[in-house]
Amino acid sequence: MTNASLVRRWAAPVAGPLLLLVVGLVARTDPFWIYLVTSAAVAYVLTASFNLIYGYAGIFSLAHVALYGIGAYVAVLLEMRAGLPFLLATAIAMVVTALFGVLLWWPTRHLKELFLAIATLGFAVTADELFLKWTSLTGGGTGLLGIQPAELFGHQVLSGDMSYYWLAGAGALLAWEVSRRLTASGMGRKFLALRDAPVALAATGVSPGRVRLVAFTVSGALAGLAGSLFAHQALFISNESFGLDRLILLILATLIGGAGTSLGPLLGVAVLVGVDEAGAAIQNYRELIFGVAIILLLGYGRDGVSGLFASALARVRRPATVAPAGASVDAGPLPPLVPRDGTDTSLLTVADVSVTFGGVTALQHVDLVLRPGHVLGLVGPNGAGKTTLVNVVTGHVPPTSGRVEFDGRRLDGSRPDETARRGVVRTFQTPRLVPSLSLVENVAVGFAAHATATVVEEVLDLPRARRDCAEHRRAARALLHRLGIAQYADKAVGSQPYGVQRLAEIARALATSPRFLLLDEPGAGLTDGEREVLTSIVRELTETGIGFLLIDHNVSFVAAVSDEIVVLDGGKVIGSGSPDEVLKRAEVVEAYLGGAA
Amino acid sequence: MIQLLVTTLSNAAVYALIAVSLNVVHRSSGVLNFGAGHLAAVAGIFYANEISGSALGVVVTMVLAAVVSLVAYVVSVRGGERLGVGAVPLSLSLLGVGLVLQFVAGELWPKQAFTAKPLVGGTLDIAGTTFATQRLVAVGVAAVFILAVVLFVERTMVGHAMEATAADVELAGLYGVRTGSVAAATWLIAGAALGLAGVLQSSLAAVSTSSAIPLVILGIVAAVVGGLGSFSKAAAGALLASLLQAAFVEYVSPRYSISLVFVLLFAVLVLRPAGLFANARKAERV
User: What architecture (CATH level 2) is domain A348-593?
Assistant: First the structure.
């Protein structure tokens, strides 16, 4: 076991409680410090929840502070109007804010991030208006006064008292634990994939929309918890605490702390509490400071200021996290590459498919049939429409006319993740991998479809999810071994040579147990040795019944592995047949090699 | 009824200008100017306090707003674009510019709402209802401006260069389009539209820095409801949004006017994310 995984298993679960305990013991004698550390514990719940949805999942939910506000109002109103006890009211508030998260997710689940930002900003501004103007409920600008201190098992937990610190601390621990477990689990991998390479996520059959739902629900519930804890500390809430100002500050705090790291929210807390305490002093310059900070931190990328800090930190840390070369190649017994019985007889047919982009015709009446266990080579000059054809089959581009069928059911019109789940999987011309994850983790994402644990188990990293995770890592390692790139297994993908990335992407595609595999220029950028490995793998896989569509410019490579070759030129099929016969034809030679030389 | 119609039209003029400005920028860079409301509001405050009530004042305000818009681009977007920063962070970065503008306005003028001298004096009587002539003038001015933008984009070489740059910056550059100048033209036009929106808002109603967020939200809603990418549809979206808002304020309650518009936005995102007036087949942007 490497140092890093030792740290992850033993130190991280202990670090949170320990920090909480030490801070509490140090602060306990001075009322001002008690107040300060209590505020910090409450603020942590907020920053940690925002870090989950924005830092890890990369979703710019501008409604987060609104959810925090809703949590505060709901908990307080349930106590004041319905007489519910603190714990129950808080629990209900968390459910309500989680549901609001779902409400925000629903219309935006397949939209681009900009539209998600628009919808959530709209929600935030609307909530702001309701907090201010729905006076009969929220007290409007005067706010809600006379909030009763939280009561736990008959004991009043007074704000300003150490007991409230421990209560808020319990909330902070919950947020810490949920963040830690979620990010360590398979769900954490999916979050990062959603953030850095959503196309890759969909290509493995995982619906990005569903991962977004998990992020909205979990972070929404935690935002509600933060709201209730805030209300019972302040014992007064008004719209001012939940406006755009707060949202901007939260974003800044998260970015300065370091989005998508476990320590980020802790540092972010210092920013939040610090600005609150400096409140009066900077009141007149608030907009100036916030404005300039936003431009610097966002306008120049999330890697702007905090990125500098992170890369400096990474430089210091790097030696500890790199596994010694060759130490982890022990992959155990090789699994059959794909657990299929080879008796599959279903066809994938492309029938009369045309695609036009505006005035440009990319494909004209193309017919193709992919058979299980067969390799169809697709060749043609650049711009012939090869990649467009793959895009049509995998749902990345809708056909203008014609249809794609698989298993007797239509495939066109499905989203990329749906086609991948049905067993039609592809690789991309430029490898799409999650750069911040290691090769093993990238390939493990491909095993998501084989998970036995439920989403809840995955989020909480319960035993079954943990077993899944370990099993997927082991299988991923075996696949990498099989493809001859096991020595790179634990390194971050982003820094690997092109050929290794390509093979890793193929490994990820294999991990999904595809029935048809569409490889878009798999040989480009490979060394001769790597291409040989690829050739033997493709041959071996055809015996298990996988059908291939293979695009490549290396004609001898295509000829060596294909059963049939189709030549595409100008969006039309200009020839097909066995490799020998097709490559001899004059018009094929002309189209492909540019005239009879 | 007439009153409602006139209010709707004159509000729509302001929102449509903002929506068109957002559209111009979004087409060229994929960014949504979250700071547009602030620029419009501050332009309105400047106009009301310094040179209101004259045609020259209107032009000066528009020119200044155009320049500020260009500076906003250079400061908050251009560097990030080159680094490959996403659309949302850059949109928020523009909100940062808006906050700085809000600060500057707070230093220069009192923090209160201002109303400008009317563009044109006098009143008109239509079907027994009296209203200020300038309301109709405002609608006319906005319509002419938007029409001019459309013609400029569709009929001139600079406009074609803008289209080309919007489609593919690198390719446009290879064909000899000066992409830097095109970006400048884009942001200048977008800023001028916001300047005019500010002028109209301060002439027809009142303007303060707290108008900024409602203004940009309504502009965004108009643009999204119409379908980002087309100026005329954005104008239609503005009309629809302000009609709903005016009717709601008139017949239901003046209190929750933003919430109502937000419901409209959500409905559009659920039902027709490409925009109400968009051709359904062209829903690629989602």
Answer: 3-Layer(aba) Sandwich (3.40)
